[in-house]
Amino acid sequence: MAILGLDIGTTGTKAVLFREDGEVIGRAYREYDLVSPQPGWLELDPRTVIAAVREVVGRAAVLASEKRDPIRSLGICTLGEAAVPVDAHHEPVANAIVGFEARGKEELEAFRARLDEERVFAITGHGFNASHTLFKILWRRRETPDVFARTKKFLCFGDFAAASFGLEPRTDHSIAARTLAFDIHRREWSEEILSAAALDPSLFARPIAPGDVVGELGANDLGLPTGTIVGGGLHDQPAGILGSGVRPGEAMLATGTVICLGVRLTTSPDPKVMVASNLCEYPTFGANQRISIAFNFTGGSLLKWYRDTLGTADLLESTPRGANPYDVICEGLPDAPTGLLVLPHFSMTGTPWFDERALGSIHGLRLTTTRKEIVKAILEGLLFEIRLNSELLRQAGVEIERYRAIGGAARSRTWMQIAADILDRPVIVLEVDEVAALGAALMGARAAGILDGEGEIQALVEKTAKVRAILEPRPEHARRYSELYEIYRDLYPATKEISHRLFALGERPFGS
Questions:
Q1: CA nearest 374: which of 410, 332, 323?
Q2: Superfamily of domain 2-234
Q3: How many Cβ atoms are within 10 Å of 191's Cβ, its own excluded?
Q4: What is the distance between the alpha carbons of residues 119 and 124, in angstroms, rounded to a whole number?
Q5: CB atoms within 10 A of CB 504
Q6: Left, alpha or beta for 297 (phi > 0: left; psi -120 to 50: alpha)?
Q7: Residue 426 C-alpha from the chain's centroid
Q8: Predicted confidence (pLDDT) at residue 142 exceeds the cutoff of 60
Q9: CB count in 10 Å sphere of residue 300
Q10: Positive or negative CA dihedral for 31, 377, 433, 177?
């Protein structure tokens, strides 16, 4: 018997097939691009995403048939914030606006005048920032009233996928929390928040707990068996925290399009520090279980930017070797810290700044700077940003003693050693890196009754989250990186106003 985990991301969708003991049977992946109809706008075409979903689920179904492991359940984890406006038949009426772009800022400022931010945090576990679904919806209402008028619901991508399978859409508590419209204590849409926004709760799918039943598939064109149970899933980051077996005192270090750290909370963190730092707390799978995440919206996508703009030589070298271009890019990096500082704000920043007008930079370039130094500096900049967020969590009362690495970067020993040196903590690399999809698959298995309760799920995670390597910080490198970090944490505040002026100039048409 097989369980299927579907991971719907910003730049691609992955289906991973597991046996019920957690062993990976196979996987399928399809990439897609963000749409930018105007400068600064970033959207996902829901039809493109669902086409990718159907393709990878269909390929997984074929594989399950070939392996004689029929699929019994499906769980879904997804990117946060982005919501598809749909009509009464759950057909999209416009693209989904992704969280990490600037639309919604004016709506946020207007909303700030109606409710105190600490009150909003007390309800939702989040402070104000323009990435939240709520402000994208309010932007739609103001700027595209025709789209808003035709919209019956705003469905996050897990809800939208379930609706495309013919099920009544349901949204899990963790994804609902990313909208800023959800009461994380009552586990329902917040009357107070939605009243302040003049929005009706019917615009959202009914919330359910992760691992509850969304529905049972009838005859379908996905290749899945009739009777396959679809379970309430998770936001992709809590799915990764679950699937990687993060314990109190540890943090997930996830590098995909976004770079993110995630922790389990055993006590309530200091709300004043959390609000001031744009940090969060919200539900995950399990009774009274909560997590917090901190992140930068430019993560692995920054290395992709390098590949596509400056990495021509690496691409030319990788092709005849049949090698992964990223492996070639990360070969031969200098061992010592570079002394360059990359501010990885190539899209809207994440925590703690949430600055939609921030811009990236490479500081410290010389005529002697090499291409490989720039590559390493990119990796260093992303990890300096994680260290900044780790220290803010520590100020809020959340201690991190070691990190569990997941995502594509976890396959690079070079990258993970840099992480250990900069964070000055051990980095654990796991044998299985499909942990977000595993977290999603476990939610489907829980809904189908294949796994019964938190104990069985935790036991399976303990079994599958085997350690491949533990990379310890190298004392001399850690000392040097601490010196560089003291400069790095001043870089954004020192250049913020310059970036804002340059951003404003870039928004004006040439000649105006």
A1: 332
A2: ATPase, nucleotide binding domain (3.30.420.40)
A3: 12
A4: 9
A5: 10
A6: alpha
A7: 23
A8: yes
A9: 20
A10: negative
State how far Cα 362 lies from the chain centre: 25
At a CB cut-off of 8 Å and minimum separation 6, what does 79 contact? 8, 9, 10, 98, 99, 157, 236
Tokens of 348: 């809207």
| Amino acid making up residue 230 | V
- Single out the residue of 268, 305, 447 nearest to residue 382, CA to CA: 305
For helices 46-66 and 157-164, angle between their N-to-C axes, nearest 10 degrees:
60
Residue type, 259: I
**Cβ pair 61, 224 in contact under 8 A:** yes
Position 486, amino acid: E
Place of tokens 């990796």: 379
pTM over 0.90: yes
Q: Which two tokens stand for residue 151?
A: 């919209």
Comparison of pLDDT for 71 and 452, the residue scoring more:
71
Tell me if 259 sits within 8 A of 293, measured CB to CB: no
Residue 333 has phi, psi (to 5 degrees) of: -75, 150
Mean pLDDT of 299-313: 92
- Two structure tokens written together for 295: 């992140």
Both tokens of 397, joined, read 């009362």
Element (H, E) at 418: helix 413-423
Spell out the domain ranges in the chain: 2-234
Q: For residue 202, what is the DSSP state?
A: G
CA atoms within 13 A on the CB side of 299: 23
Is omega for the bond preceding 352 within 30 degrees of 0, making it cis? yes
CB-count exposure of residue 354 (10 Å: 0-12, 13-18, 19+): buried
Instruction: Specify the DSSP class assigned to residue 473.
Output: P
For residue 243 the two structure tokens come to: 């699937």
CA-based angle 218:203:235, to the nearest 5?
65
Contact 342, 359 (CB under 8 A): no
Angle in degrees, CA 394, 396, 400, rounded to 5: 30
- Encoded amino acid at 291, one letter: I
Report the distance separating Cα 296 and Cα 134, nearest Å.
20
Q: pLDDT tens-digit profile of 429-439?
A: 998 778 999 99
Q: Containing H/E element for 147?
A: helix 145-150
Residue with tokens 């606006």: 97
